[in-house]
Amino acid sequence: MGKSRQSDLFESTYGTEDITTKDWRIIRSMLRILLRQSANARRSKEVQVALNEITREADRDVFIKYFLKGQSIIKISLEEYYDESVVRRYLRRATKEFTAVYCDGLLAKPFQ
User: Domain of life here (predicted)?
Assistant: First the structure.
């Protein structure tokens, strides 16, 4: 990934900072439904591209376990030996990065 592409990703991620915590919960709920219920959605090109754009590997792993494998935050924290607050922080960062890239921010647009 080129340096300019990474800068663009961070700019688009930080552009979603005006979304409230309540709205992020709605976005996470939409992602849970989309990614847990549809095998086609999980295999789609857009999802794969957005997953690859999550910059931190630990964040990506937590995102995959939570959204794609359906594990709970508590199970992830026990399995990975993370504190629950750490799992939530990783999930929050990964969700913001994923949302910024997925279909050019389609999930976040209604909340901006």
Answer: Bacteria
Exposed/middle/buried for residue 89 (C-beta within 10 Å: 0-12, 13-18, 19+): middle
- Taking only Cα atoms into account, the Rg of the chain, rounded to an integer number of angstroms, comes to 13
Angle in degrees, CA 23, 48, 90, rounded to 5: 50
Residue among 105, 108, 102, 104 at smallest CA distance from 49? 102
Task: State how far the alpha carbon of 87 is from the alpha carbons of 35, 58, 66, in Å.
Answer: 19, 9, 10
Tell me which residue of 35, 40, 39 sits closest to 67, measured CA to CA: 35
